[in-house]
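lol ok so funny story. i was supposed to be doing the assay writeup but got distracted and ended up predicting the structure for this chain instead. priorities right. anyway since i did it might as well share w the group, maybe its usefull for someone
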Amino acid sequence: MPLVFELDPAATPGLRDGVVALWTDVSNAGGSVGFVPPVTPGDVRPELVKHFVAMAEGRTRLLVGLDEEGAVAATAFLTHNTHRLMKHWVWLYTVMVHPRHQGKGYGRDLLAAAEEAAGGLDGVDAIRLTCRGGEGLERFYASCGYKEVGRVPGAIRVAPGDDRDDITMLLSLARRG
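and the output, tada:
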């Protein structure tokens, strides 16, 4: 059953708790979403609060994917640039699909929904994201149309002696035809 995607859902306590649970579960499964396991909901909640503040200020938009039970199964945050010369593209942050849904094509569905959402934003013609090297994520994003446009070797330290590349990917919305 496909996920149902919603842009800018109401920021209810249920949504908040669902995103915290998703982020915690993805992190503890080894997902590259800003944490290294083990993490608790208490570790994740302050980061989500930062996103919610940005949402309240109109700088960030939340895209959420709900499964057949209505549970938060996927998320991505689209963040506007504040620099006047860079308002024509958005950042895509915290791209997550719950581990129980891995392998169902929901990651591709999430990226397609993010592309559609970004394409509906006035003046936006590209999406940029970064990903952690050493996970194969850049191959996944490339298979969804993103192009690697930058790489900083060893910029992400996940543990002593385990430095990963910070990879920047770009999706041009001009290809939407």
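Residues 73 and 98 are 5 Å apart (CA to CA). The beta strands are 4-7, 60-66, 72-80, 89-97, 126-132, 147-159, 162-172.
back to the writeup now i swear
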